[in-house]
Hints:
Blueprint: H1 2-20, H2 38-41, E1 45-50, E2 62-67, E3 75-78, E4 91-92, E5 95-96, E6 104-108, E7 125-127, E8 132-134, E9 144-148, E10 153-155, E11 167-175, E12 183-188, E13 194-197, E14 203-207, E15 211-216, E16 223-229, E17 235-238, E18 241-242, E19 258-260, E20 270-279, H3 285-298
Antiparallel strand pairs: 1-20, 2-3, 2-6, 4-5, 7-10, 8-9, 9-20, 10-19, 11-16, 11-20, 12-13, 12-19, 13-14, 14-15, 16-17, 17-18
Amino acid sequence: MCNNKFISILVALFSLVWLTGAGWLPLAGVVAPTFQGPGDVVSGAIMWWGLRSYNLARAGNPAISLCDHTGANCADVSTDVVTGNLNSPGTRGADNCNVLTTCIVAAVYDQSGSNSCTGVAPCTFNSGTQPTFKLNCSGSGKPCLQCSGSQFLRSTLTPTGAGAQPFTNVAFVTRTGAFTTTGSWFGNDGDAIRIGFNNATNTVISFAALNGPTATASDNSQHSIQAFVSGASSFFTIDGVDGSTGNTGTNALGTSVLRLCIDGNGNFMTGNFFEQGIWAATFTGTQRTNISNNATSYW
């Protein structure tokens, strides 16, 4: 008798759900993970560029402008408002940029919201011999810009006094070739600053009037790289591990046009670019760990 009553109750409940279209209520609330970008981990970047959202508040806005292989049929690609991921770009003209690796990146937008360039405007990279786009590039299948050793982007606007030392460059990059040639992922036209790979294998270097500290970052592997530029107290943090200090000199970013995948001395990077930003500060040990973990777990 009890079994029959139990079965009848189950049938009644199932019928109610079926007829009303109601869903089964979970016994305990399941909370979807919330996207965290680098700007959520350490706020206050004065410039930031990347192929995901800088922070949750910026999600849903354009990250890059993408064109077909001839540089035509350009359109913005935004990040997803929920996940912060770069949306699939689809086609540009006859080019399916989800598959091809020849689509051209015309611009990488400054997502920081700090408007640190002339005219109180973002410091967007939007001119130069443009890198190409690859949708499935990182270890987790996320996108990158491919810099072939002759491709780069420049900002058309210049910083407005931002970037005096100390400052921190936070990047996620991979060197894929030219392993004994200097190649910078960040610099400027005045050659006041260079941050990139050294002219020795598996090595990075920073420069701000002097060749500063070096650190080990294995080639053909993606890395979270933080360059802390503060004169004689400068150092790198590679994948969460602090390196030795060295003297970069005392140059600020200055007011020269900024460069991506090249420096002011003409040193092209050969590799993949995922993101980078500038913070007008030196991070604490906890911040260095947290921002490194955020990048490596995402990419």
